């Protein structure tokens, strides 16, 4: 009998230990079905019409068709990976002409309104936003842009192209800093790497931890830029940043949806699902991998998540927050938003809601009783201002966390 009880105790201990290594499942009041849906893959090919070529054979491209309309006019069709889907028609393609020429190019999204003002590049790396005088709205779903083409490739993209290769390059670059460790923590549905940066100095045990997520939604590049500036500030050599890295740990998952990004998706992963509705049952490998990685790592280090920031883009800059207060860091977000506002001398929008849906900010609250914030940057927010905001929000967060006691 004694022997039996002993075995039972061991069993319970093993179960508790295993359970604390995986994220818990939640029944949110407003659940979302995140079982995989089929997606339509775009035909990857070189299109040719008259003396003009268009090409989508690169990671991050989105171009579903290209054809000539009349002597002066050509058209590209841009379609989503599946429906229903948010109206965020991402496009990215290369275009050139055998002979120097001007042309009008219609961007057609069928039934979805135009959203992104085009960016142009000669090398796929350095971008400038297209002059708005060269853009004409034909209807809500069709826009005509005026292009000057030559034999050299012109890149046309909804935002600057930041595909998985570019993110990896950035990760390698920041991981030259002594406080940064770069790891691959798992694979996406199509087998692409899911990256993690760990930032911290000294011992790894029992450190309050901040989680950073980015690119759950592929086109949301401006949120990614703010995240980069945020991390850059944490890695600077100054008294605040240096003290912060000693006392706190930061886990960064800079590319949550590598398949969606490289397939040029409007919003979903390769399972056809909005990953930021999957933080309850983790049915998609990307959310499951990252949620379990966070829980497992924190358990191993006996650390605690105190804050989760998930970087996104929308029509304008805004922070989405949770109404319920957490046990630790009470009032943090109010102080933080106030000090950011004072520092950058600009208004800061915030909208607080109850954690009712399986989005990451609800998950940070439910799983860790941590502050969860969706950090949104506008699609068209000026790039220098994004940098300033990313740096300022990081600096004010570090100051508050260092001097809160
Ligand atoms: Zn988003």
* Annotated CATH topology of the largest domain: Aminopeptidase
**Low-confidence parts, pLDDT < 50 over ≥5 residues?**
none
- Largest sheet entry: 8 strands, mixed
Strand fraction equals 25-35%
Query: How far apart, in Å, are the first and last alpha carbons?
Result: 51 Å
Q: According to CATH, what is the class of the largest domain?
A: Alpha Beta
- Outline, from the CA principal axes? globular
Which structural category fits the helices and strands?
alpha+beta
Q: Tell me the number of structural domains.
A: 2
Quaternary structure state of the chains depicted: single chain
The portion of residues assigned to helices is 25-40%
Quick one: CATH superfamily of the largest domain?
Answer: Zn peptidases
Question: Which molecules are bound in this entry?
Answer: zinc ion
Mean pLDDT: 95
Quickly give the CATH architecture of the largest domain: 3-Layer(aba) Sandwich
Number of helices: 9
